[in-house]
Fold this protein.
Amino acid sequence: MKEFLAVVKNTHPNIWDVWMKLSESSQTVWVGGGVRNCFLKIPPSDIDLATSLTPDEIIQVADQEGWRADQVGAAFGVVVIRNGEDQIEVATFRTEGYGEDPHRPEWVEFGVSLEDDLARRDFTMNGMALTIEGELIDPFGGAQDIKEKIIRTIGKGEERFMEDALRMLRAVRFASRFNFKIAEETRESICRLAPKVAQLSQERITEEMEKILLSEYGEVGWNLLDSLGLGQAMFLDHWKKGTSGVALTYLPKVRVLRWAFLGFALSPQVLDLKGLDRKLINQATWLAQEGLVRWEGLETLRKWSKMSVFPNFGALIEGVLLWRSFREAILGSDLSLNEQLGIIEIFREIPFYPAQLKVNGNQVGEIVGAGKLVGQALDFLLYQVQEGFVANETEELLKYLIEKKVERNTENLISKE
């Protein structure tokens, strides 16, 4: 463990100074995911401290050292200290109890022991602490569970999950991130309480689902959502028991592709989630709907270019690349070499948007007049170029438009006679 302390000291000297100073007058330890990650050989990034000092005492130390201190979570005893360009969360040892609202404790008690503070955490692997001297404090066997690749709640699973149902999704997320198994007693608790995740806010569900979908072992997470009943609880009838997540093993870890798979496997309707930006929702929905569409070259591209999800040529190119990756992961094969070369040739030779034509609105307006006629004329020219009736060259386009206008005027005169 001392090698990780050396990394903290060398890479985050400002944080190390805060930790050293607080440790002079209190029991102050490194807690949380950063300690867990040390055992997983993941370089430390999150360095959160817990201390026996009260929030007022933490602020007093910070003031004496000239550090800025903000009590961002007064009810939870959390103080953020800013030393130079670094900031670090320091939380007073506490216990807490939850009522009907799982987002906010009903009561918080300070002045407790470190072990009491660790006992309120979710899983044994997150319930460890490290002193600045390198001593590991592990009252619940987290290090052994990490060694055995087990996710286990601290205390009774029912109590931890009743405090916050999101912890059930966190268990799945950790399993899919580290390829761990969930302890049998913890699994049983999740199965019994799975329906409670439906009471969580959509934003919290979206955040955890994204982490699961984008995890290194996404298929592991998907299968757990299915077997534990969490998928059915979140997405109701859209999630059919036994839905396979094997494609997540082959899909690149790209947000839109992973979300598109959710829509493809369940229903595009489920993608309209709070917490996702509209562009991602639109792209993922399109992929879920068009992922396995038959490729018909120019006709397929022409159809897609008219969709609002592709407002310009760059967006269309991006869409084709995403579509190919998605299709390959689902079907296990890409387009043929001839089809791939055909896409390049089509994009090189054929425009799909009026902006790609070698004429502009002013030039067209001089021929057809102002207003909506300009847009109609540009759309007309675009189609004529795509069909090969005229080359995408300025002189030829304007000449062609004049000829078509003369033809239409002649037809109108003949019809009036």
In short: The two ends are 97 Å apart (CA to CA). Confidence is low (pLDDT under 50) at residues 410-417. The longest strand covers residues 86-92. The CA atoms of residues 158 and 193 lie 7 Å apart.
